């Protein structure tokens, strides 16, 4: 049995709050930078007109589905498996998990590529796309998903490093990539000198260049002497138990991710009843919710590593204390962003366009949903915490509950003659349901047995003690 690395010891023994904040800072930086990638694209694509912006709004939930599945769901499974292996001092298994993670990434990347290249037109038409906005969506989608494997490999390698408690290297790689992307994206969209403008497709090409460069950088680090893990294709031998350890967390997490993005997709379809301007407004405004995902993930990734390592080492009480600490921080973080957006919606929306219909629809969304973003932050950070614990049933049920409330509420609003704001109110109520369901289940002991609320402190302590 190998000795504990200093990062592993930090996760097991250091004070929770300062440790989480110190590890979260570079990770929040990397996630903000990664979110900036999408915002940069949206800003420049908005210069091409409302149809281009609406087309991008149609594709964006699907791109985020891939991002959240690869980085959050399957990436969480990868990070959780590696953290638990290191916590249990199984270094050889942790090394082998890297190669298994890359194999999974390639497989899922191919699935996404084929699904969107073959079924993109059907999907975007179903979501309400038509005419010029549909053609813009297809042009952007076909380029992005042709390189889906690059997105999956990048996010999987970053998850490998986060599973070891190393948040700095993925942060550095991402920030450098974004700095290079800022001039590259407009260059390829609008052209300059001998370089022809590719329009909306140029943003997609720039995005793939970013993921290619980042994947190469992360792999070179893993092969260097500075890396805790020492993966090797030469000595790789695929083992089903290692695939299973990643997939049992990642696949269940993927269900939750699909439910999140399906909520956005259904809301986009419901919004389409009010025209392309409403689609553009909702798509632009809801990017703020998507921006919260990487912000909370910045906190959730070190929380996942800490909880996974503590669970692997049998420290259940510390794992729970870390979870509630993270939930409190996430509520304040996401809630503050939501309240600011509800008070000043146009300041956000006018970064991307000035179409009156877009501004009106986006403002309605932010005023109706923004005040409830704190509950979204709680649910999301506890989802990452549950990945570390390897227990994802209730986070998935919470996300499904959100989907049902948002979809059914929005549909009923339209059926009963409601306005666009009524569709958005249903989205806000759904976020409250999402956060409350997950938090209540974990408080009731979902990580360590069936849900039920102990009546005494002694009962709670008995529940969290290792069996």
TrEMBL record:
Query: Can the keyword RNA-binding be found in this entry's annotation?
Result: no
Is the keyword Transferase in the record?
Answer: no
The record, for CDD domains, names: MATE_like_3
The subcellular location is: Cell inner membrane
Which keywords does this chain's UniProt record carry? Cell membrane, Membrane, Transmembrane, Transmembrane helix, Transport
Q: Which Pfam families match?
A: MatE
**Record's bilayer topology term:** Multi-pass membrane protein
Q: Where are the transmembrane segments?
A: 20-40, 52-75, 96-118, 138-161, 173-192, 198-222, 246-270, 290-311, 323-344, 364-385, 392-412, 424-448
Please state the protein's primary subcellular location: membrane
UniProt name for this protein: MATE family efflux transporter
């Amino acid at each position: 049995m190998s000795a504990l690395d200093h990062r592993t010891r930090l996760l097991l023994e250091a004070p929770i709050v300062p440790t989480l904040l110190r590890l979260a800072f570079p990770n929040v930086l990397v996630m903000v930078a990664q979110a900036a990638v999408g915002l940069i694209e949206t800003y420049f694509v908005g210069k091409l007109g409302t149809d281009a912006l609406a087309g991008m709004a149609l594709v964006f939930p699907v791109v985020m589905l891939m991002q959240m599945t690869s980085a959050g769901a399957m990436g969480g499974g990868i990070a959780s498996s590696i953290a638990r292996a290191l916590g249990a001092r199984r270094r050889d298994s942790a090394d082998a998990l890297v190669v298994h993670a890359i194999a999974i990434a390639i497989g899922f990347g191919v699935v996404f590529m084929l699904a969107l290249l073959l079924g993109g037109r059907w999907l975007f038409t179903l979501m309400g796309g038509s005419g010029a906005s549909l053609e813009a969506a297809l042009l952007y989608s076909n380029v992005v998903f042709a390189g889906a494997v690059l997105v999956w490999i990048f996010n999987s390698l970053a998850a490998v490093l986060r599973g070891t408690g190393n948040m700095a290297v993925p942060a550095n790689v991402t920030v450098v990539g974004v700095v290079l992307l800022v001039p590259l994206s407009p260059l390829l969209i609008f052209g300059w000198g001998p370089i022809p403008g590719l329009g909306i497709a140029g943003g997609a090409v720039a995005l793939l260049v970013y993921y290619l460069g980042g994947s190469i950088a992360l792999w070179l680090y893993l092969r260097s002497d500075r890396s805790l893990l020492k993966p090797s294709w030469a000595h790789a031998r695929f083992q089903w138990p290692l695939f299973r350890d990643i997939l049992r967390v990642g696949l269940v997490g993927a269900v939750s991710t699909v439910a999140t993005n399906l909520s956005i997709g259904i809301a986009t379809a419901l919004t389409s009843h009010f025209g392309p301007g409403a689609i553009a407004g909702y798509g632009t405004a809801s990017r703020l919710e998507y921006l919260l995902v990487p912000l909370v993930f910045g906190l959730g990734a070190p929380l996942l590593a800490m909880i996974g390592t503590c669970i692997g080492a049998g420290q259940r009480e510390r794992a729970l204390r870390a979870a509630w600490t993270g939930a409190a921080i996430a509520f304040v973080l996401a809630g503050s962003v939501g309240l600011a957006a509800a008070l000043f919606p146009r300041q956000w929306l006018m970064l991307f366009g000035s179409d009156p219909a877009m501004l009106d629809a986006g403002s309605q969304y932010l005023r109706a949903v923004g005040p409830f973003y704190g509950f979204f932050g709680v649910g999301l950070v506890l989802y990452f915490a549950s990945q570390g614990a390897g227990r994802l049933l209730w986070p998935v049920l919470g996300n499904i509950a959100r989907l049902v409330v948002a979809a059914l509420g929005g549909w009923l609003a339209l059926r009963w003659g409601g306005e666009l704001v009524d569709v958005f109110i249903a989205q806000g109520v759904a976020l409250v349901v999402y956060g409350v369901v997950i938090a209540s289940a974990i408080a009731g002991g979902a990580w360590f047995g069936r849900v039920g609320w102990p009546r005494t402190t002694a009962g709670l302590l008995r529940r969290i003690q290792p069996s």
